[in-house]
Specification:
This protein has helices at about 5-50, 55-70, 80-95, 100-115, 120-135. The chain is mainly alpha-helical.
Length: about 140
């Protein structure tokens, strides 16, 4: 048998354990809301800073055109064609855009096309840049 004092101490600890799970949903919701707000803030900052320099802006425009050719015109480019086009883009933009930024801008171009669609002026501008400066490299 346990003493009444020990019994009260055990029941007090049991109440403490019960109260934490009672507060858990509130803490979970508050944490998730805070996480969502941080993600939204970072996402909007990233969208505004897609192209940070004029060279990146040109690179992004060419990538929009290149990605739009595949998606909007249903053109499949071979590896060799993509490589020649990549070399042409490098020649037009120089080495000012680093490899990590290039990958980011390529993904950004894909997201822009998916979000805006093929008829959006940003996408048609990219297609015009592709036609004027890159299409000949694909042949």
């Amino acid at each position: 048998m346990t003493s009444p004092l020990l019994s009260r101490a055990l029941s007090s600890r049991a109440r403490d354990r019960v109260s934490v799970p009672d507060r858990f949903p509130t803490l979970l919701v508050a944490g998730l809301v805070g996480f969502a707000l941080i993600c939204m803030a970072l996402g909007s900052a990233g969208a505004r800073a897609a192209a940070e320099t004029p060279q990146e802006e040109v690179y992004l425009n060419y990538q929009i055109g290149l990605q739009a050719v595949a998606k909007c015109r249903d053109v499949t480019l071979s590896h060799e064609q993509q490589q020649r086009i990549g070399e042409r883009i490098d020649g037009l933009t120089g080495t000012a855009v680093g490899a990590g930024r290039r990958l980011f801008l390529i993904e950004e171009a894909k997201e822009i096309i998916n979000a805006k669609g093929c008829d959006d002026p940003v996408v048609t501008s990219g297609l015009a840049a592709y036609d004027a400066n890159l299409a000949s490299a694909a042949q």
